[in-house]
Amino acid sequence: MKESILTKYVIPFFQWYALMILITIAIDYFLHRLHLVEVGRYLGYLGTFIVIISFYYSLRKRKIVKTGSPKKLLELHEYLAWIGSILILVHAGIHFNALLPWLAILMLLIAVATGLIGKFLLQKSNESLKLQKQKLIEKGVSMEEVEKQVFFDAVTLDLMKKWRTVHLPITTLLAILVLLHIISIIMYNK
Known about the structure:
By secondary structure, the chain is an all-alpha fold.
């Protein structure tokens, strides 16, 4: 039985996102209950470090570094960025006294959402195109005819790969806001 797009891609997206928020709330709750709120400050440092490590995938993809399997590094990037985001969200807590950290958290949430959307949309598109090609080949259609029939889907897939044009600027803006946050903490918390 064929799984629907909703159950295969949309629900997992919302599950990952909701799980991130729930884990953040749970960790924050327990830190408050155990009177360890100060630990949250250090989780921000750890979370930022973990997110920075996750960008090894980007360096590999752009061939700045030569080691590591791109597929494995992408998976590592996804999980490390997700875990790091949880730690950063715990670090942020709920404070209404500063605009800059709120903007950074908003960009973090959007960056995670666009990352998850990219992951699930690209996965679905790749699977769909491969399945379509496979079915045509099984019917005995020539490779030349297969390429003609899947041309527009292949073009669509290429366009979908451009989702990074949204994800990368948001991630860059997040990095700028994080740097501004760190600079402001250094300047005003002497």
